[in-house]
C-alpha cells in the first residue's frame, strides 16, 4: 500500500449526510483523511541488524589507509605527481596503474581519468567501496 505523508483532506460537505452521521472519529482530523494512514507505524523494512554495517565500517578503514598511501605519495613527491598526471593525460592506463600500485596499495582499484581529474575506485571484496577524486 502506498503511504502518502501529505494526506488529502476531504471535508464533510462532500459526503452525503447519512455517511457522516454514522461516523464518529476519535480525533477531529481522522474522519477527514482521504488517504489511509498506518496507525501502528510498522516499518515495511526488515528489523535492523547492524552486524554488516559495522563490518563494512571496519573494512573501509583499511581502504582509507590504502588511499592515504596514494595521497601521501602525490603530496610528498613532485616527480610522482608529474608522472601520474602526465600518464593520465596521455591515456596511458598501464602506466597510471603501475604508478598507483608502486605506492604500496595492495587492494583492488580501478582508475578513470579525464582532462580535469583522476578517479580511483578502491574496492574491498564486495563489502564496500571508496572513490577518490583528485582534480588538477
Provide a brief overview of the structure.
With 136 residues, the protein is an alpha+beta fold. The protein is built from four helices and three strands.
Mean pLDDT value: 80
Number-wise, the strands total 3
**What is the count of DSSP helices, taking H or I runs of 4+ residues?**
4
Outline the low-pLDDT stretches.
none
Query: What is the terminal-to-terminal distance?
Result: 49 Å
Largest sheet: 3 strands, antiparallel
**Which strand-content bin applies to the residues?**
15-25%
Helix/strand/pairing category = alpha+beta
Q: Give the C-alpha Rg.
A: 29 Å
Question: Order of strands in the sheet with the most strands?
Answer: 1-2-3
The 3D shape can be described as: elongated
- Give me the strand/helix succession: HHHHEEE
**Helix-residue proportion:** 25-40%
Structural description of this entry:
It is a single chain. The protein has 136 residues and is an alpha+beta fold. The chain has helices at residues 17-21, 51-76, 78-89, 93-101; strands at 108-113, 117-124, 128-135. It has a three-stranded antiparallel β-sheet with strand order 1-2-3, covered by helices on one side. α2 crosses α3 (78-89) and α3 (78-89) runs antiparallel to α4. The radius of gyration is 29 Å and the shape is elongated.
